Amino acid sequence: MNDVTASTSVASLTIGSTRMDSPHFDAYQSTILHKIRALGNAAAHEITPHSDRQLGLAMNIAEHLLKDVYILSKQAEAEFKDES
């Protein structure tokens, strides 16, 4: 069963038997990622077509998440490391 839960600072996304805890996204973002995963599973396993709009939005969300977690956080750490 897939489940999305949140604590005060860490979102948890369970996919199958894999649980992913991340301080990088919140419960709402976890819910969106779960919906994108379900969209991908429907396309891959049930051969369900999705609209260009849905696919474009899913790509934008994934790109934003990757940029936020891996690029912007590192840039911010480097740029503001001496400031409180």
Question: How would you characterize the overall build of this protein?
Answer:
The model is unreliable at 1-11 (pLDDT under 50). This protein has helices at 27-45, 52-79; strands spanning 3-6, 11-15, 18-22. The radius of gyration is 15 Å and the shape is elongated. Strand 1 and strand 2 form a beta hairpin. The chain is an alpha+beta fold. Strands 1-2-3 form a 3-stranded antiparallel beta sheet, with helices on one face. It has one domain.
Short description:
The protein is α+β, with helices and mostly antiparallel strands and 84 residues long. The protein has helices at 27-45, 52-79, and strands at residues 3-6, 11-15, 18-22.
Explain the layout of strands and helices.
Elements: E1 3-6, E2 11-15, E3 18-22, H1 27-45, H2 52-79
Antiparallel strand pairs: 1-2, 2-3
Strand content: 15-25%
Count of discrete alpha- or pi-helical segments spanning 4 or more residues: 2
Using only C-alpha atoms, the radius of gyration works out to 15 Å
- Helicity, in percent? 55-70%
Biggest sheet overview: 3 strands, antiparallel
| Helix-and-strand structural type | alpha+beta
How many discrete domains?
A: 1
Uncertain spans: 1-11
Strand order of the largest sheet: 1-2-3
Q: Average pLDDT across residues?
A: 77
How many extended strands? Answer: 3
- Overall shape: elongated
Taking the alpha carbons of the first and last residues, their distance comes to: 42 Å
Order of helices and strands: EEEHH
